Amino acid sequence: MTTSSTRLLIEQAMLRILREFDEVVALLDVPLATTAVGTTTTLKANALGRGSSNANQYNARQIKIAELVTNGPAVGEIAGVDSAGFNSVETLTVSPAFTLNVQSGTDLHIYPRGFSPETLVDAIKEVLRNTEAPHLYLITLVTDGDMEATGTTDWTGTTVTLTKVTAAANVRFGAQAMRMQGNGGAPRAQSVSINVDANQTLFCLANERVAAGTAKLVLWDVTNDRQIGDVAPTSTQRGWMELAILSADVPATCKQVAVRLEGTGATDDIYWDDVTLLPFQRGNYDLPSWLLSAESIRDVLYLPSFTAGSESDVYQSYERDMQPFPYWGLERDDRAATAVRLDIPPLWNHPIYLDVIRPFAEVTTDTGTTIADVDYVAYKAVANILKRRKNDDWKTWANQAALRARHLGYGQRTVRMVEGPSVL
C-alpha cells in the first residue's frame, strides 16, 4: 500500500543526516521535545545541557515548531537562538518571539549551524518537482473522473455529502475515491457538463462499492434535462463492482451531457472511483498538462472484458490484469496549446489507461503530504544542498538516492515491447 508522509517527516530525515555537520546539534534528538513550559522567547529541554556547556553553545541555530500543543505556537513558526542565549542548563532564548508560550512536550527542529528551514524546504520542493514516478492515468471525458482532484468541486451534489477518501478498502484505483452519503434524500453527484455531437454513441463505466443502499449510474442529457436511453444500472453489492452503460446514442438535439452518480435512499452510503465516458467514434484525446513530454508515456493499457455480476449491466470490477493496448500512437507539437495527443482506434468500449511517469507535486505546507519515498527525497535533497556547497559528501547521498530511486522505479521510461506503439 502506498503511504503518505508529511514534509516535516522528510525534513526530520534530512536533519538526521545534516546534524553530523554540527557537533553541537549532532548530540540532540530529531525532533527534540521540550521538557518544561517556556515563554514566547524561551524554550526548555533537559537534553540541551548535557555535559559541559556554555552560553554561546547554540548561537545562531534556527528552531522550528514541529508539533502543535494546546496553547502553544503553531507548526512552522521559526526563531533563532540569541547570542549567548543558553543558560547552560536547559533554556534557550530566541527571537523573534513565538506567538504563544512554548509548551512542555512540544517537538522542535533545531537546525545545524549554517542551515535554515527554508534551505531544507526549497531542496525538498526541488526534488519532488524533478522526480517522476509510475502512474496510471485514466482516459475519460469526465472532469475528475479518476477522483484524484483535491475536493469535490467538480461534482455537483443534491441531498448528499461528498468527500474524498484515501482508506485502501474504499479506493479502487489511484490514491483516493469519492464517498457519497445521503443527506435528506436520495443522494446524487453530477459531473461537469461535457460537450458532445448529436448522434454520437457513448459508453460510460463507473466503479462503485456500496456500504449501504443502492448505487445507480445515469447518463444525463443536460440540454434537454432528461436521461439518455433506457439503461441506468444499479447495484447493492458490498464489493467493488462496475456499472456499465455500454452504448448510448446522443439525441439529435443534445449539446451537452453529464454523468450522474446516484443512490436511491436517504441513508445510502456509496464509494465511487474511476468513471469512464468516451465516444465510440473518437480516437484522439488531449493529454494532461502535467505530462512533461511524449517520452513520459511508457505504454497504453486497457482493462479486458468483464465478468457479469448478478445484476443487469453490472460487472466485476478490475477482475483481470490490465493488458497492453494493441494499437496506439502520439501526436506531438511542442508549439501547440496541447503539446501531446493520444491516438487510439475508435469503436472501443473498455477503460483505457496511460502508463506514465509523472512528477510528484510540490508540498506547500509543513503538514502537507506526499507519497514520494521519504528516504529517497531526503537523500537527494541533502545531496543537492551539499553539492551546491562544494562538499564532496554529496556523492555519497546522491548514490544512496540513485539506489533508492532504482528500487522504487522512479524515472524509469522503459516501454513494454508490444506491437503497435509509435510516435506520429
Task: Explain this structure.
The chain is mainly β and 424 residues long. It is built from 4 helices and 29 strands. The protein has helices at 7-18, 117-129, 374-388, 394-408, and strands at 5-6, 32-33, 42-44, 62-65, 78-86, 91-95, 107-110, 132-138, 155-158, 160-165, 177-182, 188-191, 194-195, 201-212, 215-221, 226-227, 234-235, 241-249, 256-263, 269-279, 284-286, 297-302, 314-316, 323-324, 329-332, 340-343, 352-359, 369-370, 422-423. The strands form 6 sheets. Strands 9, 12, 13, 15, 16, 17 and 19 form a 7-stranded antiparallel sheet that branches. It has a 6-stranded antiparallel sheet with strand order 2-7-4-5-6-3, with no helix packed on it. A 6-stranded antiparallel sheet has the order 10-11-20-14-18-23, with no helix packed on it. β15 (215-221) and β16 form a beta hairpin. α1 (7-18) packs across α3. The model is unreliable at 416-424 (pLDDT under 50).
